[in-house]
Amino acid sequence: MIKILFADDHEMVRIGVSAYLSAQHDMQVVAEADDGAEAVEKALALRPDIILLDLVMKEMDGIEATQEIIAQWPDAKIIIVTSFLDDEKVYPALEAGATSYMLKTSKASEIAAAIRKTYQGESVLEPEVTGKLMNHMRQQPSQLPHEQLTNREMEVLLLMTKGKSNQEIADELFITLKTAKVHVSNILAKLDVSDRTQAVIYAFQKGLA
C-alpha cells in the first residue's frame, strides 16, 4: 500500500480526494492536515510514502512546508496539488524540493496515476507546467545567490540584519521557532555562507538592507 499524507485547507477537498484515493486497491490515506505546519509535523512523524500538498494554506504555505520537510527528510516525495499555475508558485515549489506538480483541474485518475509514478521515483508535471518550466530555463539569466531566496526567506534575512534572534524572528512573522530555524538554515545554504554574521554582511554588501 502507498501510504499518503494529504494537506489542504479546504475540508471538502480533503474529504473527496481522500475518499477516492483510499478506494484504490494500492493506496491508503494515513493522515490529513489543514495547514502547512501540521503537514510538516505529521510528515516527519509518520514518514508516509507520498505527501500531497496544497500551496496556499494558513500559517505556513505549501512551498515553506516543502522546504522544511525536505530540510529534515531529503528523501520525502512531495506532490504539489494546487489551482495555481503562476510562475511565482511553480518555480519556488519545484526549487524547494517538490517531486511532482499537479493541478486541481486534473482528473482524480490522473492524480492517482501521478502518485503511483512519483512513488516509483518518477517526476510528474502537468503539460502546462512543463512548458512554462522549459521557457523559464531558456530565459533565466544567471542568478545572484540572494535571488534564490523566497519572499519569506528575504523577510527573515532582513530581520537578521536588524540583529533579531530566531525566536524574535518567529514572533514577528507569526511562525514557529522550528520554522524560523529552517529558514535561516536555507538562507545560509543559498548564500553559501557559514554563519549568520556572513549572511548579514552579504545583505549589506548587496544593498539589501
From TrEMBL:
One Pfam family it belongs to: GerE
Residues spanning the signal sequence: none
Record-listed 4-aspartylphosphate modification sites: 54
Superkingdom of the source species: Bacteria
Swiss-Prot/TrEMBL keywords: DNA-binding, Phosphoprotein, Transcription, Transcription regulation
Chain ranges of the Response regulatory domain: 3-119
Domain (HTH luxR-type): residue spans on this chain: 142-207
Localization, UniProt: Cytoplasm
InterPro entries, A to Z: CheY-like_superfamily, NreC/VraR/RcsB-like_REC, Sig_transdc_resp-reg_C-effctor, Sig_transdc_resp-reg_receiver, Tscrpt_reg_LuxR_C, WalR-like
Protein name: Response regulator transcription factor
Organism: Tigheibacillus jepli
Lineage start: Bacteria, Bacillati, Bacillota, Bacilli, Bacillales
